[in-house]
Amino acid sequence: MSEESKASLSGQPRPTEDADNGSRTRQRVVAASFIGNFVEWFDYAVYGYLAATISVVFFPEADPQTALLSTFALFAISFLVRPLGGFIWGHIGDRVGRRNALSLSILIMSAATFCIALIPGYATIGLWAPVLLLLVRVVQGFSASGEYAGASAFLVEYAPAHRRGLYAAVVPASTAAGLLLGSLFAAVLTGVLSAEQMTDWGWRLPFLLAAPMGLIGRYIRTKLEDTPAFRELEKEDHAAKAPVKSMFRNHWRQLLQAVGAVLLNAVGFYVILSYMPTYLSEELGMGATESYIATTIALLTYIGFIFATGMLSDRFGRKRVLICASVLFILLTVPAFALLGTGNFLVIVLVQILLGAMLTLNDGTLPSFLAEMFPTKVRYSGFAVSFNLSNALFGGTAPFVATLLIAATGNDLAPAWYLAAAAVISLVAVALSRETSREPLRHE
Questions:
Q1: Most C-beta atoms within 10 A of its C-beta, which of 59, 306, 409, 441?
Q2: Is residue 443 part of a domain?
Q3: DSSP annotation string for 87-128
Q4: Region Disordered: what ranges (predicted)?
């Protein structure tokens, strides 16, 4: 008698039914991870895209460059809380579960972003305006510190072994999609509204979307079970009592390698995808609407490149793809930024597409690479701490450092040299790590 006939007579699910159920579950996991991360990073990115307008609202008495530096300083300060958030979210994710951590983080992010839309400007409440903005940005930073790591661990632990790279690529793809919607909003608002309307009320509109979008993401996540890997740890009572302590004691080498590997992603992501519209409009004199349109076009191609990179990392291994990304940034970043200075719209779009494609080699591979470096019992902690530490030190400060370097040197190519230096450090860190794509996920 066949296995399917036995299953039918015994009332047990057939193998094909199990496979179908598993496939449907993974589809829901992918959808929940995509939508939740999309909402988080749309909320977080809008601030960067509207930085020029926000600087006028909250720092009206400063000259334009000082106001912009102040706005990006608030952007950077909010990242300082991210390592602390990495410890806390890592502990929650490794002790209580990935799903619970992700469901809570999206509520906190959405509420904080919604509050930004309600803060009066400097003209109304004076210094309290930037103070309140800073407080809300810190809450945003705390929430975001658990999102990327948790969604990546969630997907990797649900994915088929030979497709972990592709599944994990959903996280940076959803991040880029959030940035894309933010860029589209900024392009439409600056194109339709006058400068006065943007300053008075227009900049608040995308922040108001946070509440309904966050509730949708929260609802979807609460309908999922936690990952099979985490449930197995719980069943065997092997979950680490103090995951962060265990990570530092037993996996400190991987932690250092991970921090270095993230460096290129941290600087590249915020320079190429978040800071670029401001760089084009404020430093190179391009129209604000045109700069948003160029970034939007580049982001559309970026999402497609991300999934291709995930498949490449499954086929050729994580290290090869990450090393290739670092080498390309070392060789091509400065020439690419030099071409941006031509002012030709088509050239600018093509350069942004090139830079985005180079970044996807890192961004699309990093989630699976980091998740595979650490065992299940400290996976969330290892990923969250390494990712957020590198982003706090180098990612959130990237727009500020880029603006400061240009002001100090008078050289518009300064951000490119900064990005190339980050690529050198990441190259060394990845070269010292081991290949994990062909190995099963470790639990201990």
A1: 306
A2: no
A3: HHHHHHHHHT-HHHHHHHHHHHHHHHHHHHTT---HHHHTTH
A4: 1-24
pLDDT at 19: 53
What pLDDT is stored for residue 387 in this prediction?
Answer: 92
Alpha-carbon radius of gyration of the chain: 22
Handedness of CA 254, 302, 422, 266 (dihedral sign): negative
> CA–CA separation, 175 vs 263, rounded Å?
17
Query: Tokens 């580049």 belong to which residue?
Result: 298
Report the number of distinct structural domains present in the chain.
Answer: 1
Q: Find the range with the poorest average confidence among 216-225, 299-308, 346-355, 410-419.
A: 216-225
Nearest to 171 by CA among 426, 387, 22, 353: 387
For the chain, report the end-to-end CA distance as a whole number of angstroms.
40
Q: Is residue 431 within a helix (H) or strand (E), and if so which, with residue range?
A: helix 414-432
Does 23 map to a domain?
no
Residue 72 counted as domain residue: yes
DSSP 210: H
pLDDT tens for residues 54-112?
888 888 777 677 777 777 777 677 778 888 899 999 989 898 888 888 888 888 888 88
| Structure tokens that stand for 129 in this block | 């305006």
User: How does 183-214 read in b/e, with b if 16+ C-beta sit within 10 Å?
Assistant: bbbbbbbbeebeeeebbeebbbbbbebbeebb
* 363: Cβ contacts below 8 Å, ≥ 6 apart: 172, 265, 268, 269, 306, 309
Give the pair of three-digit tokens for residue 233.
């740890």
Q: Check if the beta carbon of residue 222 is closer than 8 Å to that of residue 353.
A: no
**CATH no. for residue 327?**
1.20.1250.20
Domain enclosing residue 424, as ranges: 29-432
Helix (H) or strand (E) run with residue 145 in it: helix 128-158
In a domain, 14, yes or no: no
Tell me what pLDDT residue 9 has.
42
pLDDT reported for residue 238: 60
